Task: inverse folding
């Protein structure tokens, strides 16, 4: 039934990791990445371990600072300030979500913008929305690289971003706008979502609702990028897009898993390299 071209995020991510490794091998130093993990969230622990492994394989000196779930906000801020002052650290990432008693915003804002490899600091957010070069959030950056890999021409194209979070939807829309797409942002208050989606030549779904996007929401030939990661009661992982039926209509589509997911870590490695090059110039 599939007719869409399947966008192979694993392959594009592997190529990006190789390119980062080749570039770090040319440096006279090892870029340093510090990941701060507070508490024992199992999904975060798995994710942080894969970041560590991928970073070290790409010639980046990665270390994880594991703090107990009882860490206070001032204690966490002190750790971030210490990493800001540590010259061997080029990139700092505080793994979200943080335990409920810690407010994430002041922590993210304490990170030196030059080391903010997640691109969540307001200085970097502002630069992105002004269309200036900056450290860009890894997931939407990964989507841009997948779009580039499909060869789709973004200039003037009608793009719809489904979701307006600070982590995915908003930076995604800013990146597509900077690439000269004509961008619509849809969200939970959008009227007639299926009709809005059907107008899009490029549809990026980042809602966190399992298989919400159906075949009749997709324009024939559209490029569909599925950012969503949802676990079904039977344990299966699915995206925000009903993959099988949408693949029969779309021109190109990302699978879940194996689409956007692998790009996020690869882009984190590239951001760490870029931060290192900019700091040590
Ligand atoms: P958020 O929950 O922060 O944002 C979800 C967005 O979707 C909101 O803007 C919300 O609208 C909108 N939304 C929710 N329900 C509906 C609906 N029924 N109709 C229309 N819009 C709706 O999620 P994130 O942006 O953090 O993540 C989105 C998905 O991407 C999740 O599945 C997450 O797991 C995944 N993800 C994947 C990553 C990867 O590496 N592949 C990285 C980060 C996230 P409103 O603003 O109106 O509430």
Result:
């Amino acid at each position: 039934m599939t007719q869409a071209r399947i966008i192979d995020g694993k392959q594009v991510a592997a190529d990006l990791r190789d390119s980062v490794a080749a570039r770090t091998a040319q440096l006279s130093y090892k870029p340093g990445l510090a990941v701060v993990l507070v508490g024992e969230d199992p999904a975060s622990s798995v994710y942080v371990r894969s970041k560590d492994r991928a970073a070290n394989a790409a010639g980046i000196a990665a270390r994880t600072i594991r703090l107990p779930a009882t860490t206070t906000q001032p204690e966490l801020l002190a750790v971030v300030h210490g990493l800001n002052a540590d010259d061997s650290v080029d990139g700092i990432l505080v793994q979200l979500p943080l335990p409920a008693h810690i407010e994430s915003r002041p922590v993210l804002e304490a990170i030196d913008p030059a080391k903010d490899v997640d691109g969540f600091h307001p200085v970097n957010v502002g630069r992105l929305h002004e269309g200036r070069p900056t450290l860009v959030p890894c997931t939407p950056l990964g989507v841009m690289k997948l779009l580039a890999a499909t060869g789709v021409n973004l200039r003037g194209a009608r793009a719809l971003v489904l979701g307006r979070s600070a982590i995915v939807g908003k930076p995604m829309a800013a990146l597509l706008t900077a690439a000269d797409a004509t961008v619509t942002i849809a969200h939970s208050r959008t009227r007639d979502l299926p009709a809005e989606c059907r107008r899009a030549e490029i549809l990026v779904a980042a809602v966190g609702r399992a298989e919400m996007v159906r075949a009749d929401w997709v324009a024939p030939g559209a490029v569909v990028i599925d950012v969503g990661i949802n676990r079904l009661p039977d344990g299966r992982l699915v995206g925000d897009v009903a993959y099988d039926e949408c693949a029969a209509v779309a021109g190109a589509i990302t699978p879940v898993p194996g689409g956007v997911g692998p790009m996020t870590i690869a882009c984190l490695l590239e951001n760490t390299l870029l931060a290192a090059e900019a700091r040590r110039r």
The CA atoms of residues 35 and 240 lie 28 Å apart. The first strand starts at residue 5 and ends at 6. The radius of gyration is 19 Å. The chain has two domains: 29-112, 137-261.
